[in-house]
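Hi R.,

As promised, here are both runs. First protein below:
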Amino acid sequence: LIDTGATYLALSYEDAASLGIYPGPAEYKYETRTANGTAHVAAVTLREVRLGSLVVENVQAVIGERGMLDVSLLGMSFLSHLSRVETADGALILRR
């Protein structure tokens, strides 16, 4: 889900686990506000994020505690690397 109001790319616990990323309990030391309330997140840097042929390297991200995020969010730590983010005729346009 693209969220221009999110500071960081935010991975759900489950999506992070599917990528092989398992922060330890002590790493969930940052507090953030979500639509579901206050949550603790772990900070990570993703080597690269691919969206089709679009690739962005060294993306700061956070990982939510188990069950806190229903969906991962593509926030500004990813989107700010793009030259174009807009919708036109019902299509989302992302360009590097």
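And here is the second one, sequence first, then its structure tokens:
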Amino acid sequence: MLNTIVRGDEMHLKTLQKIFANVDTLLDDPDFIQKNKVGKTSFTRKRALDFKTTFYAVCSSGKGSLSTELTKFENNAEGNVSHFSAQAFSKARYKIKSAAFYNIFRESAKIFCAQKEFQTLWGYRVFAVDGTSLILPESKENHRSFGSGGTKEKTYAMASASIFYDVLNDIVLDGTIGRYQTSERKSCYKMLKRTNTKFTGKNKLILLDRGYQSREMYHFLQDHGYKYVIRVQCGKSTPKAIRAAQGDDCMVTDARDKTLVHRVIKITLESGETEILVTNLFDQSLTVEDFYQLYHLRWKIETKYSEIKHKFKLEKFTGYRPEGIRQDFYAVLFLSCLTSLTKHESEARRVKKKNTKWDYQINILAVINALIDNITRLFYAGKSLIECRLTLLVDSLKNKRSVIRPDRHTERKKPRTVKRYYLNPNYGQTLTKDYFGHASFLPGFINYTAKS
């Protein structure tokens, strides 16, 4: 089914080297610093916490307590940073715009996409867009900036996020975070508009779930050169011509917009439910089964969200203000990019044993933990040591494998009303913050208070 491109050793290693070198160069660039700092006088005096050190410290957090993480950072920097206090760091991080983290993430994705070889399907790069909700630390400022969700009895500060994801090459190309219940379509338009062919290539196919269907979306995707496969709802929001389509594979012209011609695919699931897909892929050699397998690839974006939210512990935010939340979001997307490349390189080095019962892959959690443990050393490695340290990292991971079980299905659980990841270890306790912004817990209900 897939046109698999097998890379030799060190292909991804060189890309990782380029990314680390590029990040180091950007963080020393006066123009980049000027554009991405808050206030003209920020970072003008020579202090322990300059722009680069503060940026690296945010990205290096393993989501433990602030004092513990900063001690680790200082030790792993191996003499490249001077001692600084937790209070000084908490103050310095808000002198950096979240745009700095977004720009670093996007530049890293661009370097990845500059490679000429990619895994494709029928000659297409395959992408997906989907949104999610994030539970934020409780504060009036976060409620004002991002909005509120929850129940009538209790509301929580929440945000909406979306990512644009290459499902075959495991790379997030763009992401947005904004007000809770922001239209997923608007976020999709925004990301696709600013992601040109340098990222996607010319032959591109996008998979979208229910909620993205609309005549405007169909035209937008066609105008931007995308082939698409979109799952549609069976209700009145879907044009009658699509709902009334005969057979499991037929052509339909929109009654209100004659310029829209769709191929309608109907798939009967094991549950008995009928799934309806609309597409502008008119190649008749592609069967209903092919489209079933193709749309199943969209599940990879759900897996990526699980990685971002739970393995990287995104919702355990290190910053409590809106700008700190945005910093954490884009920092995790940047680390996700590094993780994908590290996993790809470790996979290329893994010794594939023959005649085994199962196929195997590199364990993603092992990669994430190893990367976070070593990220500070990699940031400060410099040109002389970066290749050696990256090689040691990927070689240490090449045998950290997990089994792949095909056709494994799990019933999807109903989402809980509230899922406060950053409070999981202390659920049912009150989060308080002292004068300097440090978190502590007291017995009681979940509720954010601030001591003056």
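A quick note on the second one: The CA atoms of residues 20 and 379 lie 7 Å apart. Let me know what you think.

Best,
J.
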